[in-house]
Amino acid sequence: MRAEAEGEGNQGMLLVGNTGVNRIRGDCLDFKKVRNMQQMVFQKPGGFEATVKGYFYQGARENEKKLAKKVINGKRYHPARNALWFFDPGGACPPTWYNQPHSGSFKSHCFYQPKQSDCPSVY
Predict the structure, then answer these.
(1) Contacts within 8 Å (CB) and 24+ apart, 93-99
(2) pTM of the entire predicted model
């Protein structure tokens, strides 16, 4: 979570965490074979960019572990409550990403959730 959103504080890291947990729970779309955290983080293509590209080697700090436990234990935060995707476009958020609607933004990240009919398990 820190690798993807450290600059966006605790809330940004929680939102990234929600997206990751949703990918594991989802069993849909690009994430049908993602069943655990390691598969989600290192998925190719589609994993967390900071780890897939190999430029983040630091272990989690106590604060990040507490944040991770919140999302693993079911806490959901808007706009990532049902999101499967997020990215930083370097500007305004497009209305869709991979044909999925924009669910909201937080600082520089845009979040996108699948249509409920495409992935009911994240709702």
Answers:
(1) 98/30
(2) 0.91
